[in-house]
Amino acid sequence: MSDVRDIVSRALESGGALVEPIEPDGLEVLTPASLQEALDLPELCRLGFGETLPEGAIRTGLESGWMDTLGEFMAGRGRFLRLGLDGLDSRRQSSQLEEAVRACLHLDNATYRFQEAENCWTEYLALFFHLAAVSDEKREDIVAVCLNQSNGLTADHLVDPLLAHLKVNEPECPGYAGDLPSPWPAEKVQHWMAKFLPARIRASMRPFLAGMERRLSRDLDRLFAYHTDLRREAAERLAKEHAPEDDSGRREAARIEAIEREYRAKVRDLRRKYAMTVEVELLQGVRVALPVARARVNVMRRKGVRPCHLDWNPLSRRLDDLYCESCGAFPGAQLVCDERQHMVCPECMARCSSCGKSYCRACYRDRCPKCGQVRSDT
């Protein structure tokens, strides 16, 4: 079953319709009265989604107006979902987990000690956003962000295997072996997203932005060449044929000034034309409970010790991703601060531009703790 047909089938079933897949790439639908009125469908109908339609089918696709009607009917249904997945084998030997931690945790100025491995449950929160970038053209995309609510680490690599698993397996409500982490409050999720979502948006929009910058650069070059030629011709006429103090000379000088003003105005118009705005809308949130293999480690910097854990999940078969706790980047190696053992990227442990002291931007977000110099990037 194609993705679009599968989505429509589930949506209609949630509204009480009886749905039967037919070939090629279609659905036969028996709709209740409520759906007939809301979706403008007869009681018994066929919907087609491919190039070749079943006999008597109504053509339906992402570009059709009927899909917009279906979207309005669904409205907020299915926007938030909580489920659990059982029957997944998350067991890992301690040596396997220790090897995975060694490959994941790269500390340039600190060390760590592997404490223990355990099998437990945790809950991941996956949020799906619709992006619409508008400039001289329009680009749309869907971006997913996933976090582990037990340790706040990212697990975007879990999203695709999770969706693939849910396509072929019905979610269950298993009995959890242990307590799940408390769901994050909305304010905490918003703060976390404010740190991590912009980087995902930039990565998603990078091809679109690169194309826009190429077109802007091309148009600026043409504009510059055109007005440069006009100005040069006017300057040559002024130098050869007119004295600057004559009326004709003053007219040529005024013409040069007018060319320069027109050039600056055209540049401003181009920049407004190519200015990009990005609208972000939350489409869906999914909280999924999974059995995981948990590696507990102690991160040590001088006399400071920070207990933490990394979870290995059986869907993506990877540990959670470590990120810079100041800017949200994913560095190849982390530095650990002295005060609170934050793990940050080298840029967020750089020296102050005023006094030269290195300091942690996760501890001191606004200014240098030694000289009070305000950060230029805040």
Topology:
Layout: H1 3-14, E1 18-22, E2 26-30, H2 33-39, E3 44-48, E4 58-59, H3 65-74, E5 80-84, H4 94-104, E6 111-134, E7 138-148, H5 159-168, H6 186-241, H7 247-274, E8 277-301, E9 304-313, E10 318-319, E11 335-336, E12 343-344
Parallel strand pairs: 3-4, 5-8
Antiparallel strand pairs: 1-2, 2-3, 6-7, 6-8, 8-9, 9-10, 11-12
Helix pairs in contact: 6-7
Task: Give a brief outline of the structure.
Helices cover 35% and strands 26% of the residues.
Q: Could you characterize what this model shows?
A:
- The protein is an alpha+beta fold and 378 residues long.
- It is flat.
- Helix 6 packs antiparallel against helix 7.
- The protein contains seven helices and twelve strands.
- It folds into four domains: 3-77; 83-197 and 281-319, no CATH class; 204-278; 327-378, no CATH class.
- Strands 5, 6, 7, 8, 9 and 10 form a six-stranded mixed sheet that branches. The protein has a four-stranded mixed sheet with strand order 1-2-3-4, covered by helices on one side. A two-stranded antiparallel sheet has the order 11-12.
- It has helices spanning 3-14, 33-39, 65-74, 94-104, 159-168, 186-241, 247-274; strands at residues 18-22, 26-30, 44-48, 58-59, 80-84, 111-134, 138-148, 277-301, 304-313, 318-319, 335-336, 343-344.
- Helices cover 35% and strands 26% of the residues.
- A hairpin with a 6-residue loop joins strand 11 and strand 12 (343-344).
